[in-house]
Predict the 3D structure of the following.
Amino acid sequence: MAVLRVYKYPHSVLRQPCLPVDAFDDTLRQLVADMTETMYSFGGAVGLAAPQVGITQRVLVIDMHAKTTQDRLMVLINPLILKASRTKLVREGCLSFPEYLANVRRATRVTVQAYDAHGAQQILQVDGLEAIAVQHELDHLDGVLMIDRISSLKTDWIRRHHVPQEGSDT
Amino acid sequence: MNASIASKATSAIITGAGPDKPGIVSAITGVLSQFGCNIEDTTMTRLGGDHQAWFALIIRVSGSSAWKDVEEALLKASRPLGMTPQLTPLPDVIADHCQLDSSQAPETFLITVAGADCTGLTHHVAHVLGEAEINITDLSAQVIAGESGPVYLMMIEVAKPSHQSVSDISALLAPIQKTLGVEISVRPVDVATF
């Protein structure tokens, strides 16, 4: 496994819509393993999408380990939101904008269909922070970023006091 | 201050900027309260980063006719804090002219511009919008940290024009996007009333 470089805005790879995965092979599983290690290397990070590490494929990993006592690694390949609940305003961060937070409207509960790294289809119902993470990472797969989701620099864009660093604990 | 206008005006605009420090808002609003002024609209914000930040304010007030006295009191209260506010009385005819046309739908488009900072970027965008008679109602900008250097991020709210769509405005701004290498997006601001 390897910790990969995380690309930051305005790198062009972050704007490219990602292609669906069609080969559930060892190369894909290696990418998933590397993305997971990269996510864990930033102690406060709870999700990572493939374009953030320069790969334009529809792959994302999520683990709420840093925010809850839950420890569930979610590997979502070719994810698709089937159903979304009402929205609320949430404050989120992104490793591709490490110095900022944004107030964004997200559904509080989503039903998502995806494949695992072996090609098995799964349908998951997630809520709370997991639901927010799924929507944030899925945006990355479409080339959509936090700055596209805010309505005001004055009210929705906040400078972070604590910038996430690779190898940090929080 | 034009004495004739000042004596007739029912509202005024106060502008000011100075080094950011605690007490500025208290000093200004204390004077306005003392003169019975009503704050109709205001923007007060800190400009710049954490170091050497400046605090700027724009206030539209009404409720007094002694604008010269208000201005003198504002200067007296805020000079010790490093700010020298100016007060401009608004003749009623101008105040009326500034009223929104109620026949226009209060819809808004949001234009986001992001890219490497370059001299005149704001003017380039504002010029295109002005030529097309598109009215800017709010503009804010920040320099943010990017992958390989600072990125200029600007958000402009414009009143929805009667004859131009989102794609029309995108097309107007496309040459700037191309020549200056910046990202420009235009989208309607969704307003949901519950």
